Amino acid sequence: MNGKWVKASASAALALALFSIQAPDNAKAAEGDFELTVLHTNDTHASLKDAPKRATLVKQIRAENENALLLDAGDVFSGTLYFNAFAGQADLEMMNYMQYDAMTFGNHEFDLGASEEGHQALADFIKGAEFPLVSANIDFSNDEKFEGLQNKEYTAEYEDGKIYNGIVKEIEGEKVGIFGLTTEETPTISSTGDVEFSEYVEAAEEAVAAFEEQGVNKIIALTHIGYDDSLAWDNDLELAETVEGIDIIVGGHTHTALDEPVVVEGGEEPTVIVQTGGNNSSLGQLNVTFDENGAVTSHGGELLAYDEVEADEGAAELLAPYTAKVEEMSKESIGVSTEVALNGEREFVRTGETNLGNLITDGMVATAQKINPDVTMAVTNGGGIRASIDEGDITLGEVQTVMPFGNALAIMELTGAEIREALETSVSAYPTASGGFLHVSGLKFNFDPQAEAGDRVRDILAETEDGFTPIDEEATYYVASNTFTAKGGDGYDVFKAAYEDGRVSEPGNVDYEMFIDYLTGFESINPELEGRILTTNPFTDIDADNEFTPFIQNVYDVGLVKGTTPTTYSPNKILSRTQAVSMIVRALGLETEGKTSSFKDLGNMAEETKAEVAAAEEAGIVIGSNGNFMPNEQVKRAQLALMLKRVYELQEEAEYDGDAADLPFTDISGSDEETIDAIAFLYEQDIADGSENGTKFRPLDGTSRAQAAKIYSNFLKVIK
Prior knowledge:
Largest sheet: 8 strands, mixed
Number of strands: 27
Shape: globular
Number of helices: 22
Structural class: alpha/beta
Radius of gyration: 27 Å
Strand content: 15-25%
Oligomer: single chain
Helix content: 25-40%
């Protein structure tokens, strides 16, 4: 879903929309109130192209707001050639120029920990910073590169280029406390070495207490734990609910573009959460008013795009020599062209097979076989594939942007049973995008996404000289990967156990160099999807060649539909109103627990289904007639259009105004205005078309389960 839809769930979005705190009108603050502007960035990932434009906005806003802070929530490192070439120093020059007030650490700040130099680049970044870094849950004391840099204090007497648990900024006589948190997951998703991470809630409670002991009642948590990341680790929503006393959370990690601040009202005082997305896509601005007790009484905020902004001349001049080097590097051809685009888009590489993932793992096998001829397979994490490559000549810049982390080759000795366990981990989060999703070479497998996580993988076929044959769970296989994954990154405990058991070798070949070496064996390439990773379903009544089958598979994969029996889908059966609503509720993740409906005709319907209808009614998606829902009636195509349009309007917080004049349908003239707008919505958003050469919409016809699968699949693309 896009940034206008809070990702935690639709119900959370609805609840959080009903804040008692209101955005400030240009009304003057009450006497004794304190107004503060917080400018913020996160997950910039060495995306420096628009950094001079960011500098312009920072200067303009500071000139208009004396009480302004500029904060960064981590992940400055890794992502583009600026980082590959300068290891954070180009970013640091920009941040120093803009006079950042504080920064916390992201997980990617630790990406170079496994390199020969270890965390030297991070230590150099800290020493050169003309601002303090804050972290209340990281201990650097066991890494000598950080000797003398960390002070485990909450203090107003801080120095630039040092690390503190938290700092106190005095602004117009008011004290503002700022502390940092970094996700506890960092050791599993980066190369932290001897750097240690502690539990975030305990650290946050300690921080709040330390500030309050100093009389500080305006507290900002600068976090890199994710807006709505897995609660198995940590996230900002849970932090706001759990820890009393935090007024503002400036977040990062999940690249969540919160177009407006989100307020959590769970405690005695509200907590305002902001995050900008990622890759320097915008500068965040938050304006808040505190009362004399340090409580936020009003707020307003937005994400400021760079489209119409002129670059700051001073920043552009400083960045120019770095850019010249990057442009020079990026234009160097590797001597190979691709006949098709190579798909490395985040939403694809973290959920399924792509031609780029296939190509990368094939290259890993080719390199590993030069070292150990018994290597037959490779796996690599989708989170390590960071960009696509356009059709045509392949440049060094493109390759290094795809693989910015410099991961090294590892060769694992695994049993077939361990490979199965790893593949279960790979698909455990599906259909949620996961950086741990594995791309594979030398094997094929399928899985049932509706089965319980840990029991989804079905057939695993290993490539042999005689073709693909079922994997032998007791046999030993040599599998290439990257050292991050092979050491247990992304939660691969099975690989970690093999590593600790001495069954992993580390030849040290760097990922992008292996990829280039492999590609240069071809004059041109044309990789395709090969069915290496497939989802499966239990339905015996859908033909693989039917036009609706991919859509049925998709809605089954994401959990929107179940069969009419355990083994049948009944594609030609007409969808009922109840079934249509259930699919919408599941698609949005609407909260159903405890919901009751006002409809009088739900009868003996299952309680779970009643709750789904109630959730849809509460959200305004269904209305009914004369107090009745008519649950068993066929859902007409026009009715389904209305439901989906209302969902879209709920998401966008605005009515959809379709262009009826451009509709090709000749059979909708008797429909009311809202229905015509709904039909226009489906047509204009490529969700549904018509029959008879596109001239008939058939608004009063029922919707078959096969047709519904196509409509819902296309609808998910619009709201995703």
